């Protein structure tokens, strides 16, 4: 369904609000006459809700193929990042992945910047890409992620002249406490933070019994989002349910102006809201919130369409200007993937096209090739509109596995495309179980542990054999550690750390974690357990360490006990299985 274009009067009022938001001067002024508003560019494009739904279908399929979830740190999340990243790279975005080592489930944020407009004047649009463990997360938050992806692709296709720099972000680990966005904001310098003139968040923007909610509704930052929905007579309301519960909070805490759309989660639609918006009163906006039924059938196409078009309107009002497009080009690789055995080679065609302005010289390069693989181009530079042959040569000792090679064309701007290379052959991944003395039956080597931790004491039973690692259990202030350094090979398809944990406690609280066990790889925390997790018998705990392939890391368990009432953390049968 096409959106309605806001009236000229509405656009004039919005111009004053947007100017106040994105400049250092926030003084109010009466709206200028039409002839005095040159910043009002052509109407924003209509965003195809069919295309947005196609992205949702892909995310749903990814979840189905990976245990029904796209939780941060899972294979489903990694595949979601790869899907979005490939689309953005093909469209010409500058794309980076940021590893969130402080996340509950360490994994990557995805940042994409349209390389036009002043770099110190950034408007940022974000959505979390992860789901909860219980389901595929199509409304929460495939809807926000797909809405931003399609808007990013349309912006690239239209390639208008830009007055501001537009940056898109897809966050990890939001469901565990806004960790991905918080990690990103904390990584920014003061100058980088000040360059972000507004952050817009989109979390659950297609709820099936949805409402129309805006974060910080009356702020100048919210003006373009509100203006579009006002033009549809939707009478949006403040997003009370979502306050402090999504990634805009991380930016707000850093002093960056924020706003965003939402369509509601588990709260119930009031009778008054049902009267003006339709839907069912006294029912949740999304009855599948954080459940396995949050699939593609759990999204309102109408709400999704209005959200997607509102995002486009905001982008055009905040960052798009008039004038002649700059010289620009695109890069594509065909075929987009290839498989080569060690000692072999393959070729692909790199094509360029002039997308705006005049043709220009484009220099070709490649990054991301694994050890033992070289990439060359003939010719090494072309005039946009021309093509070159890319040759991928694989040595007899090259690292095996699947890798993404980024092919970049550099002229007045840089554009890139992805090529997926699979290297086959013997060797590459030295698989097996990497932990030495995994059941503690052979003394302390190669473990490093506090005195008395590795023990055969009958007071706490081992899971197998006689020995185990028993941390704490003193009933007084005490700290115990257990660690082992491990070299993790590259080129494997799986990296699973597992151990069996029994927690026994004399604490009688049901709400306070007095005694804690922290599990770390290097400086990153994998998990924290406490007296609240006490249970009879052992429970297996497992983690994916694929992010540490090719590194030597230290695995460490630290138990900290307070001044009274013992808690014992007993560990046995530690394995790191790669293959």
From TrEMBL:
<feature type="domain" description="Peptidase M28">
    <location>
        <begin position="109"/>
        <end position="314"/>
    </location>
</feature>
<keyword id="KW-0645">Protease</keyword>
<dbReference type="Pfam" id="PF04389">
    <property type="entry name" value="Peptidase_M28"/>
</dbReference>
<keyword id="KW-0862">Zinc</keyword>
<comment type="similarity">
    <text>Belongs to the peptidase M28 family. M28A subfamily.</text>
</comment>
<keyword id="KW-0378">Hydrolase</keyword>
<dbReference type="InterPro" id="IPR045175">
    <property type="entry name" value="M28_fam"/>
</dbReference>
<keyword id="KW-0479">Metal-binding</keyword>
<feature type="signal peptide">
    <location>
        <begin position="1"/>
        <end position="29"/>
    </location>
</feature>
<dbReference type="InterPro" id="IPR041756">
    <property type="entry name" value="M28_SGAP-like"/>
</dbReference>
<keyword id="KW-0732">Signal</keyword>
<protein>
    <submittedName>
        <fullName>M28 family peptidase</fullName>
    </submittedName>
</protein>
<dbReference type="InterPro" id="IPR007484">
    <property type="entry name" value="Peptidase_M28"/>
</dbReference>
């Amino acid at each position: 369904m096409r959106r309605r274009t806001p009236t000229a009067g509405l656009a004039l009022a919005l111009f004053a609000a947007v100017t106040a938001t994105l400049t250092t001067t926030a003084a109010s002024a009466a709206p200028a006459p039409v002839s005095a508003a040159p910043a009002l560019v052509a109407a924003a494009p209509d965003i195809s809700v069919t295309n947005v739904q196609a992205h949702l279908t892909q995310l749903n399929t990814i979840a189905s193929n990976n245990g029904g979830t796209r939780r941060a740190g899972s294979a489903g999340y990694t595949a979601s990042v790869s899907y979005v990243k490939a689309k953005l790279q093909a469209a010409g975005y500058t794309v980076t992945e940021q590893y969130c080592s402080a996340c509950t489930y360490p994994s990557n944020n995805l940042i994409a910047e349209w390389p036009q407009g002043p770099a110190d004047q950034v408007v940022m649009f974000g959505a979390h890409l992860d789901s909860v463990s219980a389901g595929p997360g199509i409304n929460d938050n495939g809807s926000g992620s797909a809405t931003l992806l399609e808007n990013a692709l349309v912006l690239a296709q239209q390639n208008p002249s830009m007055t501001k720099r537009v940056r898109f972000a897809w966050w990890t680990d939001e469901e565990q406490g806004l960790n991905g966005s918080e990690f990103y904001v904390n990584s920014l310098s003061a100058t980088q933070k000040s360059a972000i003139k507004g952050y817009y968040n989109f979390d659950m923007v297609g709820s099936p019994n949805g409402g129309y909610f805006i974060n910080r509704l009356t702020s100048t930052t919210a003006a373009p989002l509100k203006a579009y929905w006002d033009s549809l007579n939707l009478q949006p309301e403040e997003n009370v349910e979502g306050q402090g519960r999504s990634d805009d909070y991380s930016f707000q805490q850093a002093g960056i102006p924020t706003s965003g759309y939402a369509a509601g989660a588990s709260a119930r639609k009031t009778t008054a809201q049902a009267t003006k918006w339709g839907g069912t009163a006294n029912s949740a906006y999304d009855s599948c919130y954080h459940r396995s039924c949050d699939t593609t059938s759990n999204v309102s196409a109408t709400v999704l369409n209005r959200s997607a078009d509102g995002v486009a309107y905001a982008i055009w009002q905040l960052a798009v200007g008039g004038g002649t497009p700059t010289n620009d080009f695109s890069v594509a690789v065909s075929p987009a993937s290839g498989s080569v055995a060690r000692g072999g080679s393959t070729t692909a065609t790199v094509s360029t096209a002039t997308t705006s302005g005049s043709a220009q010289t484009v220099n070709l390069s490649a990054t991301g090739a694994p050890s033992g693989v070289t990439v060359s181009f003939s010719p090494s530079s072309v005039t946009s509109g021309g093509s070159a042959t890319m040759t991928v040569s694989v040595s007899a000792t090259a690292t095996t596995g699947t890798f993404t090679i980024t092919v970049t064309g550099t002229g007045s701007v840089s554009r890139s495309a992805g090529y997926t290379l699979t290297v086959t052959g013997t060797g590459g991944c030295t698989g097996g179980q990497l932990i030495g003395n995994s059941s503690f039956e052979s003394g302390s080597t190669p473990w490093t542990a506090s005195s008395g931790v590795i023990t055969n004491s009958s007071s706490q039973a081992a899971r197998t054999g006689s020995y185990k690692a028993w941390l704490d259990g003193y009933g007084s202030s005490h700290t115990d550690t257990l660690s082992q350094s491990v070299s993790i090979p590259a080129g494997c398809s799986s990296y699973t750390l597992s151990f069996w944990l029994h927690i026994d406690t004399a604490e009688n609280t049901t709400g306070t974690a007095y005694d804690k066990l922290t599990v770390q790889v290097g400086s990153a925390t994998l998990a924290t357990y406490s007296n609240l997790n006490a249970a009879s018998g052992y429970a297996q705990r497992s983690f994916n360490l694929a992010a540490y392939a090719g590194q030597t890391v230290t695995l460490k368990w630290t138990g900290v006990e307070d001044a009274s009432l013992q808690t014992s953390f007993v560990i046995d049968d530690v394995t790191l299985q790669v293959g």
